[in-house]
Amino acid sequence: MSMVLLRFLESVPSALAVGLLLLPLLIGEDSGRFKRIVAGLAVLRAALGFALVAMIARAIIPAERPLTLESLSGFITGTVVGKAWVATQLLAIVFAVLTLARLAVDSVLLDKVTLGFGIAVIAVVSVTGHAIDDSFSIWQQISFLLHTAAGLTWLGGLLGLVWWMATARHKPPLVAHVLAERWSTVAKTAMLIVLLSGLVMAWENVGSFANLLATPYGRLLTLKLSFLCAVLLLALALVRYNLRPHAAESFDLRWYAKIGAVESTFGLGLLFLAGWIAVITPASHETDLYWPLPFRLSFAATWGYVGTKLPWIDTAGWYLAPAWSGIVALATLAVAAGVWFAPPARRHRRWATPAALALTAAGLVSSFTTIAYPDTYADPAVDYTAESVARGQKIFAETCTGCHGAQGEGNGALAAGLKDAAGLPVLPADLTAPHAGNHTQGDIFHWLSYGGTSGVMPGFKDALQADDRWDLINYLLMMSYTNRSRFMNGLGMVQWLIAPDFALIDPQDQITTLYGLRGAKPTLVSFARCNGLSGEAAAAMARSLSIAHETALAGDVNHVTVYDKDCPGGARGREAQHPKAAEIAFSAINRYPNEAPSLEISQAHFLIDRSGYVRARFRGFADGDPNKGQLATQIELTKKEPFVVINLHSH
Predict the structure, then answer these.
(1) Can you tell me the distance from the alpha carbon of 220 to that of 292, in angstroms, rounded to the nearest whole number?
(2) Lower CB count within 10 Å: N or C terminus of the chain?
(3) Quick one: CA dihedral 41, 43, 45, 48, positive or negative?
């Protein structure tokens, strides 16, 4: 917090100095009365810069190492943050020297040059914060500079305007009106830049709407946005005042200064929050997510619920269906329109229409609302890999099959006798149904930890470690797609199932995971068990694997093979480091209608597109069958599709 306060105290003097330099230039006024103040502010900014680097160094250098002049010098010259501080501090010193030169030289050109350096000083405030990250694109780096330059210019100008209005009662109202109008144009431009650059920064640092409330960074940003709304409302009040008839003749400097002072207070709050945000972990990098509300908004879990024909024909829970909230919203919207346009009701529209619109908004929000938990947006602690899925399968077999059944279809030995607290029968969920994909992984983690919503399923917080629960979730989410995977064939399907990652054996150690193959070209993953085969069966298997390998080579795609030792060496591609784990993971989606599931894959070939989605599956190949042609066709189609960056945790 001390660093946040120091950043705040460092930014305010330079911003105010810029504002007091800018305002006189807007109306061609002699800036003499502000020269000493500007010089003092600039020198203060330069002095505080030395304290800032010491505090940054102390935060980065291990606590057991004393902060000496030698270690501080090494930090400044040997780190990116230190070198960035040198550049910003040099600008601050030049700015201070120019403001001191203005005390002896009266020159409009010098005033403009000094203003330019002042804006540069406030623009680089972010360089010692998140903007120092060299992984950002050039546009993101520029957005940081524009955001701080525009935001601090606006704040400094606003503080300067309040100062000007409060100390210029001898000035004619017309002069104050002209200054207010010209400053308003500058402020509008600055705020537009702040909003646009802020969107770019938020896209990178927040990542999702949920992170606004689920992370410390997001909650601070939400508070910052509320302060911004207050600032914009007060700015609107000042703009409306300027637009009054005869405003130039009766301009009230004292009133304008009071409203501007309130706006400045919120602006200073914005600056303090911005400094706080700059020194904490961005929301998109945060792993400890805590959702504070008992509900969340979700299309997938309400109107887009997989397995429900229509929201209003959900006979199991029609009274909770999202359509009813939507109907209420449409009805209140109709009332709002009627009150607004119907002549007999127009006298009530000032209060009735906003009230009806508020009910409309509440109905719409309610129709997209579903239950949420503190863990709802928790970031998985275990990656979505075949190894994790295999561990999850073992945990499921040991812990969950009694109720959910060996294949997760809700038909375990204990299923028939389950009852809730009221004594009513409760059937375990069919985990192979698509509904699991409508929930967040955090929802499932919460149920596994503390028990299901019906009160029948117990919590496993004490029985299973957190990583074990995440392994189980990775397996459950693969199981939820088994119904759809039964109908996957060689004709290709839409992007819906992400292939689980697994480690590869690579002698050159260049590409060591399936994930690492993404981007350049599609991948064919082949599974086969050749041991125990002989005669025609062995020859057919060998030919099938050879056709798969030859087609992959001809199509210029990656080929990954999970074969046992008896499979022909000439048909092998890159191999899995843990073949059994890869086989178990892919067996969860290697399901066929009317066939008993198995953790072993006698033979299957999965085509994975450049983005990492499983798109087609083949049982095998033989000379003269259409599968080879279908594989070649699907390879060419997936090679032409755009590459999409996806999250391994997405399902």
Answers:
(1) 14
(2) N
(3) negative
Q: What is the DSSP letter of 34?
A: G
CB count within 10 Å of CB 106 equals: 12
Q: At residue 525, what are phi and psi to the nearest 5 degrees?
A: -105, 120
At residue 113, the pLDDT reads: 95
| pLDDT computed for residue 310 by the predictor | 42
Amino acid at 609: D
CATH H-level, domain 386-480: superfamily:
Cytochrome c-like domain (1.10.760.10)
Residues in contact with 171: Cβ distance below 8 Å, sequence separation at least 6, in sequence order: 253
Question: What is the number of H-type helices and E-type strands within the chain?
Answer: 20, 8
* Residues 6 or more apart in contact with residue 406 via CB below 8 angstroms: 397, 412
Question: Percent of the chain beyond pLDDT 90?
Answer: 47
Distance of CA 397 to the CA centre of its chain: 35
Which CATH class, in words, describes the domain spanning 487-640? alpha beta
Place of tokens 């005869």: 246
Least confident piece of the model among 188-197, 480-489, 595-604: 480-489
Residue with tokens 């009852």: 419
Query: Alpha carbon of 189 to those of 29, 442, 458: distances in Å?
Result: 22, 42, 58
Structure tokens at 508: 């050159």
Secondary structure class of 184 (helix, strand, coil)? helix
Count of other CB atoms within 10 angstroms of residue 519:
11
Whether 79 shows a pLDDT value over 50: the answer reads yes
Contacts of 311 (CB under 8 A, 6+ apart): 302, 303, 305, 321, 322, 323, 326
State the architecture of 2-285 in CATH terms: Up-down Bundle (1.20)
Q: Structure pTM? A: 0.76
Question: Nearest 5°: phi and psi at 181?
Answer: -65, -45
C-alpha closest to that of 38 among 160, 138, 141, 122: 160
